[in-house]
Backbone:
């Protein structure tokens, strides 16, 4: 979700928080730190008062986000087939 | 891992067990059942004595496995960049 939101362009913390409705502040901070630590996200601090922090996908992050987006698109595309398979399995688990 | 192994072709339970060294019987059984339930794997039971069970990727499973393989290849390709980013972050966590 964070990667998808940042794929649309750089975001300030508050913008991300609004876009990722329901995410706790703690989870968002941890997620951003992990993405930053893994080199997927760049963190820019503007010397305003108070300082303004912007997050942006790095090239590495963008290529990772592309893979994740492909997987998300795949799961949306085949959601129906998977649900049909699950329903069939649940009625005849061990034929 | 199971998907990768089945990408190479149909496998009997024992063959999978040998290929996935270290996986517990319980975990393998649960993994195969989940993959089967989600329609990614087809389970064939040959009427031998004792019955011989073979597992095979479905078309759905093959297309899913392709995405996963892409993600695995990506992580292998960028392993060094990620480790460099982590090392840099760990020395200067909050510049």
Residues:
């Amino acid at each position: 979700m964070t990667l998808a939101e940042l794929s649309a362009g750089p975001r300030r913390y508050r913008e991300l928080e609004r876009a990722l409705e329901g995410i706790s502040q703690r989870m968002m901070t941890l997620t951003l730190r992990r993405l930053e630590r893994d080199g997927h996200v760049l963190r820019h601090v503007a010397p305003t008062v108070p300082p303004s922090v912007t997050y942006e996908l790095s090239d590495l992050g963008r290529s990772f986000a592309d893979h994740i987006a492909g997987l998300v698109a795949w799961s949306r595309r085949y959601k129906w087939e998977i649900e049909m398979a699950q329903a069939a399995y649940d009625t005849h688990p061990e034929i």
